[in-house]
Amino acid sequence: MTDLPNPKTATTRQQSEEAFHDEWAKSMDLEDILVVESFEACSALENHYVMTQLGDLHGKKVLELGCGAGEGSVYFATKGAEAVATDISTGMVEVVHRVAQKYGVQVQAHRMTAEKIEYPEQSFDVVYGIVVLHHVDFHKAVAEAARVLRPGGKALFIEPLSYNPVINVYRHIAKTVRTPDERPFKFKDLKEMYPYFKEGHHQEFWFFTLLIFIYFYVIERSDPTKERYWKKVIKDAPKFEKMFRFLNGMDKFFLKIFPPFRYLCWNSVIVLTK
Question: Where would I find the H helices in the chain?
């Protein structure tokens, strides 16, 4: 199953994204792919929230867009879901098969773009994507997510915001571990997703907790051009759990009493209900 155009007609962005992620897939070690931790580590704030929105996944059919190594699809499969993973990268699709085998679950994995999903209308109960929409034509991807969802189904996307100066400095430094075509969202972009669905809301995360990135750079001397900080916050969570929980407590308090702080958060979770 494939949706990708042939190399002569593929857009420059698609070619760039596919090449980048194929190359990344070659360097992946199965031992470094943290499925459970990506949802259950203290620093997995966004996925904690995702799971509160999804509830029991037993018997539900879940589609992951831009799956990467498939941490989401494999985790959902361990929770009893019928998981389908899609990605523009053949290399990543192959990684997903290996990760699923390691965890002893069945995951269907296909090479496919988010902008055109090769499944009939109302095929899924859930569509999930983590940091994928800002790599693609998000209007097309969101429209496709709505099309393949069943009535009452949910689409959940975790996406970066464009406002925080600390994160923007990180993005400038970490160019070698990012693709050149990605574009972090503004709140107006999030609202443009709502018309495709009956209901929609978004929840922001990582304000004071972003001090962890400064800790990585200044104290641990971790090179952001060689190590992806957004993976490091999951992998090393046990090392800074006490500090992280304190900072996250500050986030919860200040974001509640002063909502404009959410403009300076790192990520947003967008929840859309058909």
Answer: 12-26, 37-40, 45-54, 71-78, 90-103, 138-148, 165-173, 187-191, 211-214, 229-235, 241-257
DSSP-assigned beta bridge partners for residue 126: 62, 154
Global pTM reads 0.90
3-state SS assignment for residue 93: helix
Number of alpha carbons in the 13 Å side-chain half-sphere of residue 93: 17
Instruction: Sketch the domain layout of the chain as residue ranges.
Output: 12-162+179-206+261-273
Q: Mind listing the pLDDT tens digit for each residue in 54-110?
A: 999 999 999 999 999 999 999 999 999 999 999 999 999 999 999 999 999 999 999
What dotted CATH number matches 12-162+179-206+261-273? 3.40.50.150
Distance in angstroms (rounded) separating the CA atoms of residues 135 and 17: 8
Do residues 106 and 42 make contact, with C-beta atoms less than 8 angstroms apart? no
68's tokens: 């990467």
Give yes or no for a contact between 180 and 69, defined as CB atoms under 8 angstroms apart.
Answer: no
Closest CA to 119 of 98, 149, 89, 141: 149
- What value does the mean pLDDT take over residues 171-179? 68
Alpha carbons within 13 A on the beta-carbon side of 187: 12
User: For the segment 233-260, what is each residue's pLDDT rounded down to a tens digit?
Assistant: 999 999 999 999 999 999 999 999 999 9
Q: How far apart are CA 265 and CA 223, in angstroms?
A: 22
